Amino acid sequence: MSLRVRGLTVSFGNMRVLDGVDLEVPRNTVFAVMGPSGSGKSTLLRVFNRLVEIYPDVRVNGEVYLDGANIFELDLQRLRVRVQMVFQLPNPIPNLSIYENVALGLKLNRLARSRRELEERVRRALERAQLWDEVRDRLGSPASKLSGGQQQRLVLARALAFEPEVLLMDEPTANLDPVNTARIEELMVELKRELTIVLVTHYPPQAARVSDYVAFMYRGRIVEVGPTGEMFTRPRHELTERYVTGAL
Ligand SMILES: Nc1ncnc2c1ncn2[C@@H]1O[C@H](COP(=O)(O)OP(=O)(O)O)[C@@H](O)[C@H]1O
Ligand SMILES: [Mg+2]
Question: How far is the CA of 25 from the centre of ligand 1 (A)?
Fold first, then answer.
């Protein structure tokens, strides 16, 4: 089991945003979390890399285990290397070169022992994100010169450069055209051979296309979770059925 969540409750001030969430995310799967806007999907992802702790009024109760280790007891910097995140809007550092955008995190975390190793890891990350062929001749040019679809693959490469065990993707295709969306979806299916992906999507057809398991969230709770095929063909809960048919 790659990620295990037990009784997770998150509040901001006196507003409870996640309410007793239990989940098991098996390794080497794409695990989709879907649900209407405001249901707590992004908050759940932000617990997994403890990004949620940046909010001063947050309270987190419950347990999350990454391969048996309680994430709240792990070294934070180490956890954030192992659990990487890609957001809806690509956020490369615009003035920094394509190369440096991928290399920077590795340098800051001292993850490469030599310049050569650094270059290798940057190249490998760009290859895994299927961007290398498009940028190999202009690694020194600013990231801002890339198209939106390329920038999304650049931040994916930046995440992959850490060689994470878990990749959190929060509506990663919400701002992409169909061609770039299809590319990211293909990449997810490819990447799960090497890591575990938790994908937040508010678009059920995407969950149906790429995921192995789906959790349906509503108002901070998991309504239903199961293998993707079953969730779409035989939902057990009426709310799930209404959501996947577009009625919710
Ligand atoms: N830092 C925060 N402070 C206060 N409320 C927040 C914060 N982050 C999220 N929320 C609230 O928590 C609820 C769930 O948000 P979110 O996890 O972003 O949902 P989703 O990603 O499913 O749209 C929303 O009502 C949102 O306004
Ligand atoms: Mg969200």
Answer: 22
